Amino acid sequence: MRDYIPKYLNAFLLAFATFAVVFAIFIAKDSNSSSHLYFSTSSSLWTSSFSSAFITVFIFLPFHQFRLRYCSKRQFICEKRKRNGSNPGSGYWKRDEKVEAELATARALIREAQLNSNSTTSSPLGDEDYVPHGDIYRNPYAFHRSYLLMEKMFKIYVYEEGDPPIFHSGLCKDIYSMEGLFLNFMENDVLKYRTRDPDKAHVYFLPFSVVMILHHLFDPVVRDKAVLERVIADYIQIISKKYPYWNTSDGFDHFMLSCHDWGHRATWYVKKLFFNSIRVLCNANISEYFNPEKDAPFPEINLLTGEINNLTGGLDPISRTTLAFFAGKSHGKIRPVLLNHWKEKDKDILVYENLPEDLSYAEMMRKSRFCICPSGHEVASPRIPEAIYSGCVPVLISENYVLPFSDVLNWEKFSVSVSVKEIPELKRILMDIPEERYMRLYEGVKKVKRHILVNDPPRRYDVFNMIIHSIWLRRLNVKLL
Question: Measured between alpha carbons, how far is 367 from 351 in angstroms, rounded to an integer?
């Protein structure tokens, strides 16, 4: 009898493994098919061909149904919620009815704008400062309606716990400047969205600075990254005990923001922060589990001295004598490929690892038709905003990068994307772009500049207000009743 056991056991294991593979494929297909039923921040929200039936499902899908679908994809999170007494399928989270009514109204008005948009060329809404128009937007009317509603309704509560310099402040120069500026603007209510009454808030901001945590507490010799865990986990434990909002929503209506390379790592240590909360990150890398359905990308802008004067400029298209330009160190996986093929090898494609002393980086960008923007160690590159500021069409070479504000902006209309395998053909690709298309790209760069520009104080539709709008869109995704 014992001789037959291994044979039967092997047969059983083979059958079980086959069933597991088939079941996994079925679940994957089901997850893929259902993932678009709820999340709106994909580009399809702003595409004028979006069917009315699809929008109805996306906006008005009952949240308990969404959570059941979501649980099928991340069952272990839901099981943890059940153990904590939060059953995802047994009811709704309790929130202020007025707050949720405001969000429901906003969803309905945005849906109406989407359905009544006959063209993607302009918005019929009046605006004394600016009316979005042109094909740089996926749908200018829907965006304009959403933006105006955001200005009218959106309220952000900033937790007051924590002391500078770790909390409520940040560096406002160098490559991490956007993190510091945003923290400072929110702290001083320069952006005009802050509320002091947490019961009236739509979202809650966790005002820690990853840059400042690492600057003050990280030992470069010991290199103990757990310092992030100690600070951030302790902070969330404090606010979750003092206030009901984190526990009420499981963190879904909370957000953090970071432009540090380790911004995503900082959220690993609190599961609800990682999986539930809105993470606003410069390095929006899908391979590092950036989720564009709930997380928001924003541009990495290198303010070398902190000054924002003279950021923009550039020659007119006829006077731009250089086809393409890049100067930068060889790091990451993409830049070595670019430098290997093009470093100081062509009179039209000017690629340098070390820029000659007689050349100015800023002036080279301002007289080039195309500016090459490859990813380095991280997917985000400050060269993208620098190119736009200079009136130079960005040539994007990256992998797994979610571009800033891409739920609203149509990057194909003001940039050129080149895959890594196409780097050897870079000159041919750029030379083959007809002059008419280049002029459209150039005009698109000029138009989109207002949405990438740093202003102090911030101005309507600028980069800081676009960051807030990205958070607003993701908050509209979550219906907390």
Answer: 14
CA dihedral 339, 343, 349, 354 (to 10 degrees): 100
Q: State both tokens at 167.
A: 């909390």
At residue 316, the pLDDT reads 97
- Which of 294, 309, 208 shows the shortest CA–CA distance to 251? 294
CA distances from 406 to 80, 402, 453, 474 (A): 33, 7, 16, 13
Q: How far apart are CA 379 and CA 470, in angstroms?
A: 19
- CA separation for the pair 448, 239 (Å, rounded): 38
The whole-angstrom separation of Cα 291 and Cα 279 is 9
Residues 6+ apart with CB under 8 A from 128: none
Residue 89 has pLDDT above 70, yes or no: no
Helix then strand count (H, E) for the chain reads 17, 10
Indicate the angle between helix axes 97-115 and 463-476, nearest 10 degrees: 100
- Spell out the residues 6+ positions from residue 21 whose beta carbon is closer than 8 angstroms to its own: none
Handedness of CA 422, 425, 427, 432 (dihedral sign): negative
Sequential DSSP letters for 185-215 = HHHTTTTS-B-S-GGG-SEEE--B-HHHHHH
Q: Token pair for residue 102?
A: 């405001």
Give pTM, 2 decimals: 0.82
C-alpha distance from residue 356 to each of 314, 344, 345, 370 (Å): 20, 11, 14, 19
> What pLDDT digit, counting tens, does each position of 174-188 carry?
999 999 999 999 999
CA pseudo-torsion sign 78, 84, 88, 93: negative
Extract the tokens encoding 339. 């430098």
Report how far residue 300's alpha carbon sits from residue 146's, in angstroms, rounded to the nearest whole number: 24
Cis peptide before 385 (omega within 30 of 0): no
The H or E element containing residue 292 is none
Tell me how far apart the alpha carbons of residues 151 and 465 are, in angstroms, rounded to a whole number.
9
Cβ neighbours of residue 17 closer than 8 Å, sequence gap 6 or more: none
Q: How many residues does the chain have?
A: 481
What does the pLDDT read at residue 148? 96
User: Which residue from 197, 179, 55 is spatially nearest to 112, judged by alpha carbons?
Assistant: 55
C-beta atoms surrounding 416 within 10 Å: 22
Q: Region 206-234: what's the mean pLDDT?
A: 92
